[in-house]
Write a structure and sequence with these properties.
about 80% helix
């Protein structure tokens, strides 16, 4: 069980980074001259929000429904940007991976286990 939790923790981390990657991909696909600046700005804003509200060391820790809403908006942003960039199948796959890994993390976090 420890190995599964560790693997899932890695998957959750990669999905968090995937949201940031989707900002860059969307900006790249836009073809705009300002795409690098938009990608940098978008990623900076999302990193700032994650640092304030989402990270384990967040300044303002969210709990309960507020945490769920934040994470749905966070991962939903990544899914929406992939979809808007025309990557519908990848957006669906990303949404599924996010949903499964966050559900498992939540279920395992709520159990009282000796390890």
């Amino acid at each position: 069980m420890k190995t599964a939790k560790a693997v899932n923790l890695g998957v959750v981390f990669l999905t968090e980074l995937g949201v940031l990657g989707s900002v860059w991909y969307y900006a790249y696909r836009s073809g705009s001259d300002a795409a690098p600046l938009a990608a940098l700005f978008g990623t900076t804003v999302l990193c700032w929000l994650w640092g304030l509200f989402g990270s384990p060391r967040a300044r303002f820790k969210l709990h309960g429904a507020a945490r769920v809403v934040f994470e749905v908006l966070w991962f939903g942003t990544g899914v929406a940007l992939l979809d808007a960039a025309g990557q519908h199948i990848w957006a669906f796959a990303f949404a599924c991976v996010c949903a499964v890994s966050k559900t498992l993390a939540h279920l395992w976090d709520r159990r009282v286990a000796p390890f």
